[in-house]
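Fill in residues.
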């Protein structure tokens, strides 16, 4: 396997032995598939581990818990059967995870196949920017990343920042549902909030053309910022920066922050969760003001109506065609009467995001939101009689039509 030795240099984990175990299993799995299909050109390590910010938490049981995924992009020759390769890679990732589990390492592995043309035709986005800046070729053509277009953080579309925030909001809904069922470990109670704060900071920095993939550099940007330059000011700014510092320390050095988990309680987490909604609400409204160039949007209802109108007709048509195709591919029943009505409201992705935001922001007030209104704008045939069922419907729609795409 070409360049396999590079793998030992690419993942900066808390314990070198843990890193070696993870890497050896990944190498063996990728090597086997490369020999089998004969069309893999390169493998690129991406995500937090490629920039030396991967998190390994050592549990009292002795298990090493990897926080987040270890992600690889598998570049294939033009004309390769990506569907077949994706199935092989998915199966291989599961086997690697099971192999690591037997060694007391809990880890999620993600092998994602793309055609070589994907790199050549790539447009500026958060994902491509991070791949360009921090991607590590661990197998094959070491110059493959040179096929990506070169651009700066200022070229990342501002709507990418908004989508990043929206995706975290949907994840928070799923987190809230599990929290309500008391179905979370100490780590699971805390880590979703860490992700939220990391990406609220990242989302804001994208819109202000100061984006940093590095978690530590994101915090530094805020630590050096004046309150008047942020999406919140006054005391809220100070509280946000302090919380961001705490979350960054945990993400980068979870074992040094183990005391946080030992002192955590469901009540503490609920309070932190409600505090985070306040910051997310401020950021949501601020971003919509920036995206629409309308400085007078301070009402959530108005923000929903306004963001729907931002996207041009071409983008809306493309969004609905994609939505219908995905539904066909996964045999998801649709109401074309409902689709026809919602087409004149906004793109399906934004409808799902606004339904999620309506539910999420109501949680801070501790009151039931208008479930009928949420379901009226959700572009699926799902029904819900209460808030919990509405959350399930929105998260399900997000998983099927946004996250899995």
């Amino acid at each position: 396997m070409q360049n396999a030795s590079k793998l030992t240099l690419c993942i900066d984990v808390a314990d070198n032995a843990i890193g070696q175990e993870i890497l050896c299993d990944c190498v063996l799995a990728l090597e086997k598939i490369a020999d089998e299909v004969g069309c893999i050109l390169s493998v690129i390590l991406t995500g937090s581990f490629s920039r030396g910010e991967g998190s390994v938490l050592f549990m009292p049981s002795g298990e090493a818990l990897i926080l987040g995924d270890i992600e690889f992009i598998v570049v294939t020759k033009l004309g390769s059967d990506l569907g077949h390769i994706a199935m092989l890679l998915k199966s291989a990732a599961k086997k690697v995870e099971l192999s690591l589990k037997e060694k007391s390492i809990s880890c999620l592995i993600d092998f994602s196949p793309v055609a070589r043309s994907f790199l050549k035709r790539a447009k500026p986005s958060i994902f491509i920017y991070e791949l360009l800046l921090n991607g590590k070729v661990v197998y094959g053509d070491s110059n493959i990343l040179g096929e990506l277009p070169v651009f700066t953080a200022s070229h990342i579309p501002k709507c990418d920042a908004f989508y990043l925030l929206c995706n975290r909001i949907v994840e928070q809904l799923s987190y809230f549902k599990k929290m309500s069922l008391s179905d979370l470990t100490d780590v699971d109670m805390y880590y979703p909030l860490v992700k939220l704060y990391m990406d609220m900071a990242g989302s804001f920095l994208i819109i202000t053309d100061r984006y940093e993939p590095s978690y530590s550099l994101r915090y530094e940007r805020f630590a050096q910022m004046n309150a008047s330059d942020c999406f919140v000011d006054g005391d809220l700014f100070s509280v946000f920066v302090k919380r961001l510092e705490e979350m960054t320390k945990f993400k980068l050095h979870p074992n040094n922050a183990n005391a946080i988990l030992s002192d955590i309680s469901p009540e503490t987490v609920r309070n932190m969760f409600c505090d985070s909604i306040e910051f997310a609400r401020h950021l949501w409204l601020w971003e919509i003001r920036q995206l629409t160039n309308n400085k007078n949007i301070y009402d959530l209802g108005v923000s929903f109506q306004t963001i729907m109108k931002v996207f041009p007709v071409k983008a809306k048509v493309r969004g609905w065609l994609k939505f219908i195709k995905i539904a066909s591919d996964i045999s998801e029943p649709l109401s074309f009467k409902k689709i026809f009505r919602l087409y004149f409201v906004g793109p399906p992705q934004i409808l799902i995001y606004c339904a999620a935001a309506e539910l999420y922001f109501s949680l801070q007030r501790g009151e039931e939101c208008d479930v009928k209104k949420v379901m009226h704008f959700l572009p699926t045939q799902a029904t819900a009689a209460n808030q919990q069922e509405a959350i399930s419907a929105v998260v399900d729609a997000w998983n099927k039509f946004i996250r899995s795409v």
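Residues 152-293 form one domain.
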